[in-house]
Amino acid sequence: MGDWGVMEYEFHFVVDGIEVDDDDAVAIVHETFDGVLTCHRGRHFLDVSESGVNAIEAAHRIVVRLRRSLPALKLVRTDPDLVGVSDIAERVGRTRQNVQQWVNGERRQDQPPFPDPEGIAGRSPVWRWGDVNAWLAMFGEGDEVRPPTREEALTIDYLLPKWQRTLDDGLPLVHFAAAETGDGRDEERETVQRLLEGTLALPGVLERISAFPVPRTEWQRLTVVCAVLTDRLSSVVSRIGHDEVWAVLAFQGAESELRLQPVGTAKAPGAVPVSRLGLGRDATVGDLLLVQTNGPDGSTVTPITPVGLD
């Protein structure tokens, strides 16, 4: 599977439902997530990291993983990691004077201006480390593990209650991904996503998808890969996350009807390998549609049969 620009993101959550004196919860945080649970003035904080193509997708994934392992945990919001000039200097190994020059626009004049401060602490400005780190990353400095920027954190905070309510209802979190990008057909894939967003909101649709023969442990996070008929199946499988073995392929058929097809990696149990369908490594979504319609030997392949992609 390709990584499609996957990066590691670090999250600092304000949490409820677990406590630092709960040895079992602390052990899970440390051993399963390599994370840290702390308590300050009666409020609990959780530091964890997760990979994704962007901060929102990484947060989406970590919410599901945490729910699986710690069902009592509630993620209240992200907590901004606020830093002053001295903090920034210490983190990047520069002098305070160097950082102040960045802030004043006296250095790095070939780059966008230094981020606006988040506020004032005492008489000194403070910034979100995520914003500063993103600015530093433009010229090869900062942390490799990226905290969310202010804009990303606001989006995550807005989505957290919705994501957790969906899981409370026993439904999966849906993550949309485009099979390919930048080939002039992005708008067609976005059309598929818009159609799906409306369809998935209809009563019973997600429950019908849950009837696909895939392991229940895979059900809490549903990746839907939006494609057009010319997209390669190899591109589809590259969009399945590193911790996933299955997804749903969505595309418009020859008559513009919306079609859903479960697909999986070579590790997906019960999947029919594409080689058995007579499809080669360069096969497209359109080729798969033809096989579904006619079958490699005249017998059709049931649409809800997961297709294993190499």
How far is it from the N-terminal to the C-terminal residue, by CA?
8 Å
> Strand fraction band?
15-25%
Helical residue percent band: 25-40%
How large is the count of helical segments?
10
Count the domains: 3
Q: If strands are numbered along the chain, what order do they take across the biggest sheet?
A: 8-9-10-11-13-12
Strand elements, count: 13
Q: What low-confidence regions span 5 or more consecutive residues with pLDDT below 50?
A: 297-304
Structural class: alpha/beta
> What is the overall silhouette?
globular
| Radius of gyration of CA atoms, rounded to a whole number | 23 Å
String of helices and strands: EHEEHEEHHEEHHEHHEHEEEHE
- Compute the average pLDDT: 85
Largest sheet: 6 strands, mixed
Organism: Streptomyces fradiae ATCC 10745 = DSM 40063
Protein name: DNA-binding protein
List the helices and strands and how they pair.
Blueprint: E1 7-16, H1 23-33, E2 36-40, E3 43-52, H2 55-69, E4 74-78, E5 82-83, H3 85-92, H4 96-104, E6 119-121, E7 124-128, H5 129-137, H6 150-168, E8 173-178, H7 186-200, H8 205-209, E9 221-226, H9 233-238, E10 246-252, E11 258-264, E12 272-273, H10 285-294, E13 307-308
Parallel strand pairs: 8-9, 9-10, 11-13, 12-13
Antiparallel strand pairs: 1-3, 1-4, 2-3, 5-7, 6-7, 10-11
Helix pairs in contact: 2-6, 3-4
Structure description:
The protein is of the alpha/beta class and 310 residues long. It is 35% helix and 23% strand. The protein is built from 10 helices and 13 strands. The strands form 3 sheets. Strands 8-9-10-11-13-12 form a 6-stranded mixed sheet. Helix 2 (55-69) packs parallel to helix 6 (150-168). It is globular, with a radius of gyration of 23 Å.
